[in-house]
Amino acid sequence: MSAPETGAVFHPGHSELHGVTVVLETRDGTLYVGRYHELTPAGVLLHDVAEHRPRPGELDRDEFIRRTLEFGVRARYPHLVVPGPDVRRVTRLVEWGAAS
Amino acid sequence: MPYDPRLVQPMREEMVRMGARELRTVAEVDQALGDLKGTALVFVNSVCGCAAGSARPGLALALRHSNRPQQVFTVFAGQDLEATARARQYFAEYAPSSPSVALLRDGEVVHFIHRHMIEGKSPQEVAQQLVAAFDKHCATSTV
């Protein structure tokens, strides 16, 4: 199949992850799922961010990810900056689906 | 805040060219989706080139397939705010994202493609996802 023409594509010059829905794992076990914007001096800036903290009575991490993959990102924060030293790993959400 | 309408007009026209009907008001959404019979696809359009730049041409490719939804609608997230919010009420179990695609049959969502399933994909890869859903849910039975 050949691709037909398309409208404009915005956001040139950003990092590879710009605009991508990522899972950001912090060193204390919290997960944030949101759209990666950029790495700022204050930390990683995400948009439309869901949060999961490992607490009794909460969904476990795998179930939280499963529901997010199936039903989408239920954003708790419109924007969030996670300080760089707190970040353990940033991966694409779809990679979690492929792994499960 | 919506973008300059002149800037997004080509993205609207791209959808119309592939046969989608734009729903720009709450009344238009309710008229189209309120008592839906058969299969319909709702494309939530977006200015974001990161994903919509592949989603629109991917959908255009998929709509050339023999099995396809009977009706194709589109709302424009970030542009037609009230119409988009209303459309999302028809698939409220899915978190809002744009671009995204809801495939409905008799008013029920039978398949949903989130933004995160489109990001990083080529138009051909997006089309493959859609065609698989069309084959599963839109095939007309023959006797």
Topology of this structure?
The complex is a heterodimer of chains A (100) and B (143).
Chain A: E1 21-26, E2 31-40, E3 43-52, H1 61-71, E4 77-82, E5 87-92, H2 93-99
Antiparallel strand pairs in A: 1-2, 1-5, 2-3, 3-4
Chain B: H1 5-17, E1 21-22, H2 26-33, E2 39-45, H3 52-62, E3 71-76, H4 81-89, E4 100-105, E5 108-113, H5 123-137
Parallel strand pairs in B: 1-3, 2-3
Antiparallel strand pairs in B: 2-4, 4-5
Helix pairs in contact in B: 2-4, 3-5
Folded structure, characterized:
The complex is a heterodimer of chains A (100) and B (143). Chain A is 18% helix and 38% strand. Chain A is α+β, with helices and mostly antiparallel strands. Residues 1-11 of chain A have low confidence and may be disordered. In chain B, 39% of the residues lie in helices and 19% in strands. Chain B contains 5 helices and 5 strands, in the order H-E-H-E-H-E-H-E-E-H. The relative contact order of chain B is 0.20. The mean pLDDT of chain B is 94. Chain A binds chain B through residues 1, 3-11, 18-21, 48, 69, 71-75, 92-94, and chain B through 7, 10-11, 13-14, 18, 47-54, 56-58, 60-61, 64, 93-97, 100, 112, 114-117, 119-120, 122-124, 127.
Strands in their spatial order, largest beta sheet of chain A: 4-3-2-1-5
Structure classification of chain B: alpha/beta
Biggest sheet architecture of chain B: 5 strands, mixed
Cα-to-Cα separation, first versus last residue of chain A: 30 Å
Q: Can you count the helices of chain A?
A: 2
The SSE string of chain B, one letter per element, is HEHEHEHEEH
Estimated radius of gyration of chain A:
15 Å
Topology of chain A as a string of helices (H) and strands (E): EEEHEEH
Q: Judging from the principal axes of the Cα atoms, what is the shape of chain A? A: globular
Q: What sort of overall outline of chain B do the alpha carbons produce when their principal axes are compared?
A: globular
**Overall pLDDT metric of chain B:** 94
Distance between the termini of chain B: 52 Å
